[in-house]
Amino acid sequence: RRERQRFVDKNGRCNVQHGNLGGESSRYLSDLFTTLVDLKWRWNLLIFLLTYTVAWLVMASMWWGIAYLRGDLHRARDNTYSPCVANVYNFPSAFLFFIETEATIGYGHRYITERCPEGIVLFLFQSLLGSIVDAFLIGCMFIKMSQPKKRAETLMFSRAAVVSQRDGKLCLMFRVGNLRNSHMVSAQIRCKLIKSRQTPEGEFLPLDQCELDVGFGTGADQLFLVSPLTICHEINSKSPFFCLSQRSLRSEQFEIVVILEGIVETTGMTCQARTSYTEDEVLWGHRFLPVMSLEDGFFRVDYSQFHATFEVPTPPFSVKE
């Protein structure tokens, strides 16, 4: 079968692009902090460097402009004259004075004098502006570095889902695992069935979302994810797969979106990992190979068999049949 367009990729990326926003694009600027955090790293670093570079050049130019308008540049080496900023002879020296002030390195050779009210006002403005820029940009970089998106890379989903019997009931199953020793606190899993349908009124819904029960009533959706777990959806009269059989599976078109959420134990931030299974990735009459074994004093997980399945006798009929 030719691979069709997915709603959610296997790596969790949603294939949805927003276009023709018109005047609504101004909403991104109203939430500028989140917009910067959502940008890619290369754009973040470029904005970070350009903002500081422009701010440094503008503020240094203002210090140089004060010295130029007061005539300090021409009388800077006159020991009898009291300039606004001592030992500022040109733009490079004004730039160095600004950097020393902004970075609180220490004045030493260059310092502001008390006979310069405009310099004092500019100094106060520079301190406030520098604090705001530092808090905004450094906060943005810190939030971006501490985002738990990369934590989702160490949460695994099986490449395929299987349909087989468990406890005498036909079930749709897939496997999840955690590669790190640190736990996912309050881990919870949800499943959505994405499938087009037409309502009795004739309305066509191209991406209708339907919830798949993976143990809401029994608490099975709350995971203790210290070892690989097999998530089970029982196919019964309330399931959207009530009429699904081995033969009809070949002609169906649907996508199962799996969403795993939890709190990262080391940072306390909420992490979300996603994947999806299309009808081509659902294996009828298969079961996952065991990956747990008991060693000397501990349990060992063999992740080389994480995606492996084997065939088991399974009725080819639907639950309804």
From TrEMBL:
Gene of this entry? Kcnj3_0
Q: Where is this site: Role in the control of polyamine-mediated channel gating and in the blocking by intracellular magnesium?
A: 134
Q: Which domain of life is it from?
A: Eukaryota
Recorded GO CC terms = monoatomic ion channel complex; plasma membrane
Entry-linked Pfam families = IRK, IRK_C
| Location in or out of the cell | Membrane
Inward rectifier potassium channel C-terminal domain boundaries: 155-320
Q: Would you identify the family this protein belongs to, as annotated?
A: Belongs to the inward rectifier-type potassium channel (TC 1.A.2.1) family. KCNJ3 subfamily.
Which Gene3D superfamilies does this one have?
1.10.287.70, G protein-activated inward rectifier potassium channel 1
Q: According to its UniProt record, where is this protein mainly located?
A: membrane
For this UniProt entry, the molecular function terms from Gene Ontology, in alphabetical order, are:
G-protein activated inward rectifier potassium channel activity
Q: Which membrane topology describes this protein? A: Multi-pass membrane protein
- What reaction does this catalyse? K(+)(in) = K(+)(out)
Protein name according to UniProt: G protein-activated inward rectifier potassium channel 1
TM spans, by residue?
45-69, 119-143
Q: Where is the Potassium channel inwardly rectifying transmembrane domain?
A: 8-148
Q: State the UniProt keywords alphabetically.
A: Ion channel, Ion transport, Membrane, Potassium, Potassium transport, Transmembrane, Transmembrane helix, Transport, Voltage-gated channel
Biological process per Gene Ontology, one example term = regulation of monoatomic ion transmembrane transport
